[in-house]
Amino acid sequence: MTICAACGQENRAGARFCDSCGASLEPTGTRELRKVVTILFCDVTGSTALGERLDSESLRRVMERYFAVAQAVLERHGGTVEKFIGDAVMAVFGIPVVHEDDALRAARAAHELRDELAGLNYELHREFGTELQVRMGINTGEVVTNEGGTLATGDAVNVAARLEQAAQPGDILIGDATRQLAETALEFEPVPPVDAKGKSEPVLAHRLLGVRADAPAFERRFDAPFVGREGELEQLTQAYGRAVRDRSCQLFTVLGPAGIGKSRAVYEFIASTPDPIVLRGRCLAYGDGITYFPLVEILEQIAADRELGRLLADDPQGPKLLNEVSAAIGVADEAVVAREDTFRAVRMLLELLAQSRPLILVLDDLHWAEATFLDLVDHIADWSRDAGILLLCVARPELLDTRSGWGGGKLNATTILLEPLSESDSETLIDNLLAGGNLPEELRERITSSAEGNPLFVEQMLALIAQGAGNGNGEVTVPPTIQALLATRLEQLPAPERVAAERASVIGKEFWRNALAEIGGETSALAGLVRKELIRPHRSPIFPLDDAYRFRHQLIRDAAYDGMPKELRAELHERFGFWLQTNRSEYDEIVGYHLEQAFRLKEQLGRVDDAVRALGSRAGDLLGRAGHRAYERGDIPAAINLLSRATKLLPEGDARRLEHLVHLGNALHDAGELERAKSTYAEVSDAARSAGERVLELRAEIGRIHTEALTGQTAGAAAGLATVQKWVAELEELGDEAALAEAWYVAATFESWLGRSEVGGASYRRAADYARPAGNRRLATVAIGNGTLLQAWGSVYAPDGVRSCDELLAEYAGTSVEPPLRLARALHLSFMGDDEAARRDHERGVELYGQFGNGLLRAASSMSKADHALRAGRIDDAEAAARQGIEDLERLEERGFLSTTVGMLAEALCRQGRWDEAEVTTHRIAELAFPDDFDPQFRWRSIRARVLARRGEFEEAERLAREAVEIVDSTDWHLQRGEAAQAVGEVLELAGRTDEARAAYERAVESFERKGAAPDAEAVRRRLEVLP
User: Fold this and answer.
1) How would you class 123 by CB atoms within 10 Å of its CB: exposed for 0-12, middle for 13-18, buried for 19 or more?
2) Which helix (H) or strand (E) holds 593?
3) What is the pLDDT, as a whole number, of residue 8?
């Protein structure tokens, strides 16, 4: 479809005129752009009083002189004077073309304008008896403009005007974004935030005091150890060696995008090269008379070096060549020198310098060089003789846009392209830049991923984090310096290439030729983007027969995307989404994403009608289906993401929304986001009740009671089980298998807390039996896994359990069932005394829980990890595991697994002889545990009984120990029955009642043997042997 620029009406594909207003739909030759620019406002203060003092003709002459000076200064620094408003001047830096240093250009212009006005005031005072005072405001931000136009609109313009109005006469106020983009070159001081009209929050501002001459907008860090680039340094060393050995001139060009490490590689090469003469010249992006500016810097370095000065003075040709070069480049008062004579003089001067020692001439930013200077470099490379010279040129790939054959055909020329750092080198770079500082692993991974091997990006992201900046949710914010670099690079592309990059960015980091053509991208421009290292060919399984491409960097894709107006983005997302659905209908998630973006962009523009709402609903349905599939395959984070987005797009009363909300609640529960899960279930329950959707209401209530049990908000396991069983009866009548599967699954959880592993296992099997015909394969398989894990704790004989786990793993390895199977196998192996094998299985299970995003069971797994360590005698490890589990579960506000995990900590404290701490811990177990959750209830009694017995409080100790036995005797958990009996034996042994202690120990041996826990049984037998 095509959107009319005149009225905003959507029109059918192929229409030439708008169906609504009749306006032409043909391209007009200009298009809207979004770009980040820097705006400068300069206003004369006290102009009203000035008008009273001066005749109107004189005032006109004064203001004309002021405007002329302002315009000359602003345009000299690359600003576009958009308008004169009364006494104010508005200039934009970044229109028509963005530059990476627009913020610095604006600051330099403002500072210079203030100085220029001081000179003008001298003249005005002499001629008119008056002077002008001005104040200025500078701000950087996003605006909307037309391609080739000068008009900029957006909040950034208003803020610049407010900063100017808040400035005192003679002051320059800059916004915080401007400060960030040019900080290392500026001298400034903070001022109180500016209360700007129309802004909800005050605007951060700084008073500009000065601008450092020739300073870059941001500085690179060369203080950290160098990383990588060994091959490139070797190539440089070889080229230098040829220049020295052959007494020849070698042209070596280092290409690479901004920030890739060109300057650092050159720095390291020179630092490792013994005793050369090193001269540097830098090409400027803008300015007057900049053609030979690198030679100006080189002459300044020669003049400052005594050795070089003597070398030239001692040679008869030296002073003459120096004067010729100085005259040619305008630093000496001589006649104009012909171009050929200039080239000859420069070459001969360099050859003379290289007679004593090899010369390395570093030419930075050669992509900004004027054509004449590039001709000069070519001349030196072609004609220099009998002198060891390395012309070391540093440039971005844009150099090849102006000189596509640079270095071509020269036997003495080498050109290399610096590739991004590897992931391991990027991680090393982060360590080097941190210099011993700490960075959370998750944040480190995000920086590595976002920077994609660009050292400058790593530096800037770390600097932003060090300043405490971020987006508030732990994500890595892209620094404005990087945004400016990338926007500049894209801005300088020919129009077909830029349009192709922008439209490709809508498709994503990976895109296809036919898809790009479908949404209006010029596919013939792709070759140019490949050559400029913006994209690269790629293989894609989605359209294997189509040419696929990939942006070299995600941030390049983002910068291209941000350059388009939202209206165009929305149209392109919608067009691509429908095209993809037509050609590959199975990609619900991708299609849903693009339709979602189209809807959100139209929503932001305030264009929400029935058609747009229908678009949002369609996106929601696609994302919901994709989220359900993600949950089915065990990808819990993806499920939460997709289902959350889906439910926000679908209308409140839509039945599909309630279904997706149920799945979302289940995924949140598994992730350990228990409070979110509860509120989601409550929302579904209320909405379903109002809509008369009883099955959906019951499914929500089943999820809610499960989550509330884990957070300690139910009366107990028996009460919860009774409620679920009542719902099961109702669902049997309703005949809904999906809901019955969920109900039996939750019933099994309550059975496990009551210590009925056989019954609980049967409930899990019932859940699987209902889940299969309902199409809920995930619940069917997870029920098998969790049933196996439940019975590993409970009634199953350990050797039999290992064999059963092996059979199931052969079928379910690599699925979301593998984690509980691994933990079950680890328990059996631990009971049998194979600690190393148990640890391997346990670690693998925990790792998989993390990969599948099951935060709840991953946190709960510390309980079994502590149990393994206790059984193997690794008491310190047991304590550490228990404490980690407690921390994780408390963060999730969970209580069901927490009470047993605290019990493991209490046992570890006992084993270390820390009896008082153990007793305190038992009180916490008692506070946390449900009255009928048998494991923590027996555990706190057994542990406290042993503590009291050691104090001689035998009566209370025996009472508690026998209560523990009574609790576990109602269960089929043989291991816990053995542990409770063993605790009774310890109490009676300490009380001197040997015969009774022997009977308790023998009972413990019997229970351990029934479980297959041979090491536990053997340990108790040894105690029996030493009883009197």
Assistant:
1) exposed
2) helix 588-604
3) 40
Say which DSSP state 184 is in.
G
Q: Measured between alpha carbons, how far is 811 from 1 in angstroms, rounded to an integer?
A: 50
Provide DSSP, 599-665: HHHHHHTT---HHHHHHHHHHHHHHHHHHHHHHHTT-HHHHHHHHHHHHHHS-TT-HHHHHHHHHHH
Third-level CATH fold of 930-1028:
1.25.40
* DSSP string across 753-808: HTT-HHHHHHHHHHHHHHHTTTT-HHHHHHHHHHHHHHHHHTTS-HHHHHHHHHHH
- Domain spans of the chain? 1-30, 36-211, 255-417, 423-477, 565-649, 652-713, 930-1028
DSSP state of 523: G
User: Hey, what CATH class is 255-417 in?
Assistant: alpha beta
Q: Residue 280 phi/psi, 5° resolution?
A: -130, 140
Please enumerate, as own/partner, the contacts of 225-233 that have beta carbons within 8 Å and a separation of 24 or more. 225/432, 226/264, 226/268, 227/421, 227/425, 227/428, 227/429, 227/432, 227/455, 228/421, 228/422, 228/425, 229/261, 229/265, 229/268, 229/418, 232/265, 232/416, 232/418, 233/265, 233/268, 233/269, 233/272
**Alpha carbon of 318 to those of 228, 335, 641, 998: distances in Å?**
41, 19, 72, 108
**pLDDT < 70: residue spans in the chain:** 1-31, 47-49, 51-52, 148-150, 217-223, 331-337, 436, 467-476
- Angstrom distance (rounded) from CA 480 to CA 98: 14
Residue whose tokens read 């000069």: 376
Residue 1, pLDDT score? 43
Give the span between the Cα atoms of 177 and 553, in whole angstroms. Answer: 24
Q: What is the value of pTM for the model shown?
A: 0.77
Span 36-211: which CATH code?
Answer: 3.30.70.1230
The predicted pLDDT at position 7 comes to: 39
CB count, 10 Å around CB of 89? 27
Residue 511 to residue 911: CA distance in whole angstroms: 61
